[in-house]
Amino acid sequence: MSAGSHNEWESELIELEKFIDSAKERARKEQDAGDKVLLEDQIMKLEVGRDKFLKALYSNVGDWEKVLIARAVKRPYTLDYVTALFQDFVELQGDRNGFADNAIVGGPALFDGRPVMIVGHQKGRNIQERQFRNFAMAKPEGYRKAIRLFEMAERYNMPVISFVDTPAADPGVESESRGISEAIAASTMKMFEISSPTITVIIGEGGSGGAIGIAASSRVLMLQYSVYSVIPPEGCAAILWRMPERGAEAARALKLTAESALSFGLIDEILPEPTGGAHRTPIETFGTVKTAIAKHLADLDKMTPDQIRADRYAKFRKMGQYDTALF
Amino acid sequence: MKQSEAFLQCQSCKKILFSIDFDQNLRVCTYCGHHHRISAETRIKWTFDEDSFEELDLDLRSGNPLDFPDYVDKLRAAEEKTKKFDSMTTGRAKLSEMPVSIAIADFSFMGGSMGSVNGEKVTRALERGVKEKCPVIIFCASGGARMQEGLLSLMQMAKTTAAVQQCREAGVPYIAVFTDPTMAGVLASYASVADVIIAEPRALVGFAGARVSKQAGVSKVPDDFQTAEFCLKHGMIDTIVARKDMRSVLISLVRTLGGHLYDGGSK
Questions:
Q1: A24-33, A80-89, A97-106: which range is least confident on average?
Q2: What is the ipTM of this complex?
Q3: Which of A8, A15, A257, B199 has its CA 20 to 30 A from that of A34?
Q4: Are residues A292 and A313 both part of a single domain?
């Protein structure tokens, strides 16, 4: 039986880590010097064991487990990357058309001293935050805000860095009546119109149309344990077998991993995560992402604005696999 | 529709219709006005100049890049049923002598879903408009992206939308017609960014399918939710046109928006 959540999948590890923490606490309080040494020795052994267990657990991460890691609450979210990688970020809100969306955040910032425009999905860590962020499911106003920011980036010659982390776009009645489909399509189209270099990093869930609306970039990078899919595995299972609980099976069928996306030529690079995932050593992950963005920006800087647009069109134009039938 | 030779039943109001009347009325129910789904061939015959259609890109055929379970069987069954390789039929046609690039969807081929072949055909139809300097008309009918081709299908959304952007830049008008149903990945890509959007009466038009919405906990929807009429009311489409008037409305649009593309002005 497959685990239902990231915590469940890591449960033995989490138990072990908790036990080590409590043992450390006891060692700290231990008065008897001899017992203290004994305890500390035991802790060291436990930590070696924990490292081994962690390595083993993460040496063989299945497709469904990647879905769980991508959705993990402890995983760094867009604003964590913004804080760690950029300076002078000012969040700009409002679609200038009557609505505000909190599932997509964005605004200008400095990256290595250079002005860039940031756009990204934002998840929440607790119930209140999650509701405020609408579970990172953007409404039409989110994509219309993104369009505003893409246009501003074009105006001020700034590269765009987008962070993708959404289960899907918002499917509610409100979103339908305000044209969620049009908003996604228009945002996608805007990404082909502008001549700013654009880089997308899939940091967690790349959820179908909700993702593509801010992911049609010159370069698309995926973190090792992020996923990118045309439909959530549970949704796929619901349609195929009318059984959402067969998500693990659907995850395998959908080939939603970074390796698959790279092998189909749909992304440019996989960014490796530390053993134990981005959430266990975020600092290391921030460093990886920063280096990758800098590298790809330097590459894109060599192109003229016309070349940027032509390169982006050519990149997406090639996507797809089909046969040519013989008559 | 249930057809027993001379009679059939309307899918919507369930009244019994004479087959002859039904065809003469362009498969629109004479009682309730329900526009029944039609094949690409029938659509082309009823919309464009007689014998003007030249089909292209006939050789594109879906593979099974993901080794997705049962996909090949479903494809073969659809090919057998429709005698086609994909739901999209594309090529050149004319409207009152004016050349147009067209793509016509047929829902009966795997629910008109957009995989690599579908996306490629739409993209080529849009690019043909740019290359040959003629307006592009796409009749949409789709349940959305084709799940069985995974992320490759999702990328067709970006690819086709990028091609629409090329049309805009080249000054090539693109008209989309939403027929029953136009949903999800197709609606959220090339369909919704057309210069002009027309819908057939009561066509189902929406982002999230019923099963997806239900999973997301969406309940209590308005009676006309996800219909052409709902979209018109909310400003998401330009007009609703009955099948019998479609040809003449398209001619007017091609003549006005595409006038600059034809030698010697409009015809």
A1: A24-33
A2: 0.93
A3: A15
A4: yes
